[in-house]
Amino acid sequence: MSKADRLLTLAEATEMLGVHYNTVRQWGDAGTLRMVRTPGGHRRFPLSGVREMLGGPKAPEDDESTEDRAAIYCRVSSHDQKKKGDLERQVGRVTTHCVKQGYKLVAVLEDVGSGMSENRPRLRKLFKLVNEHKIDRVVVEHKDRLSRFGGGLLEAYFSSHGVEIEWVHETLGKSYEDELVEDILSLMASFSARIYGKRSAENRKRKKAAEAAT
After folding, report:
1. Looking at the annotation, which residues are catalytic?
2. Dihedral, CA atoms, 203, 206, 211, 214, nearest 10 degrees?
3. 81-86: which pairs have CB atoms within 8 A and are 24 or more residues apart?
4. What is the DSSP letter of 7?
5. Phi/psi-derived region of residue 151, left when phi > 0, alpha when psi is between -120 and 50, beta in every other case
6. What's the rounded mean pLDDT across residues 123-144?
7. 39/92 same-domain check
8. Which of 94, 124, 148, 209 is most buried, judging by how many CB atoms fall within 10 Å of its CB?
9. Whether 99 and 20 share a structural domain
10. Domain range holding 80?
11. Contact, 44 vs 38, CB < 8 A?
12. What is d(CA 109, CA 68) in angstroms, rounded to the nearest whole number?
């Protein structure tokens, strides 16, 4: 067996693909990712098959102009959802879609936080990939995964850099409606905290001024 076709353990394949080991198992069992079993029944994954799923390396005769580089962006609102496996399953669904479309996966980005928040590390990394022209498309399960509001502005900005946003599903699931309510409540709590914080600061300032005057 050549070095290019050596067999990877589940842990090695998981690290290369950047997804949860349960997702790699599911892909192997479903035939989405090439897999063999050892005499002892352990899963092993040919390195060439993992590289194919990642979209490279290409053969010299392949036409580079047809390469479609994609970044996956997935998000859940809470760590509780992540613990339940919602984020992992979302990554699995979107990655499977990209593999079926034949995209070259450049990055799989996962965030935990409100879709109304701009303070998302992986979203910032996505903008960096767009700015550096390292991807041709962003693949998201649903537009609310990328942003609750202002999606049109993101599309316009990405498009100005030659990057297309692709939605796997157009319809928002019922569970996501509950998540939207949670995001709105979180936003209200954040604004309330800011208002009360500002009032407290003003009260302290007035109290300090009064003490200084006496």
Report:
1. 77
2. -140
3. 81/112, 81/179, 82/112, 85/20, 85/22
4. E
5. alpha
6. 93
7. no
8. 94
9. no
10. 65-172
11. yes
12. 17
Which residues does 45 contact at the CB level (< 8 Å), separation at least 6?
7, 8, 9, 10, 12, 13, 24, 28, 33, 34, 35, 36
Place of tokens 């980005």: 109
Look at residue 61 in the predicted model and tell me its pLDDT.
44
Residue that the structure tokens 């669904």 belong to: 93
CB 168 within 8 A of CB 99: no
Q: What CATH number should be reported for the domain holding residue 143?
A: 3.40.50.1390
**59 is a domain residue:** no
Residue 152 tokens, joined: 């049109």
41 and 118 fall within a common domain: no
Q: Report the range out of 32-41, 113-122, 126-135 with the highest average pLDDT.
A: 126-135
Distance CA 7, CA 65 (A): 31
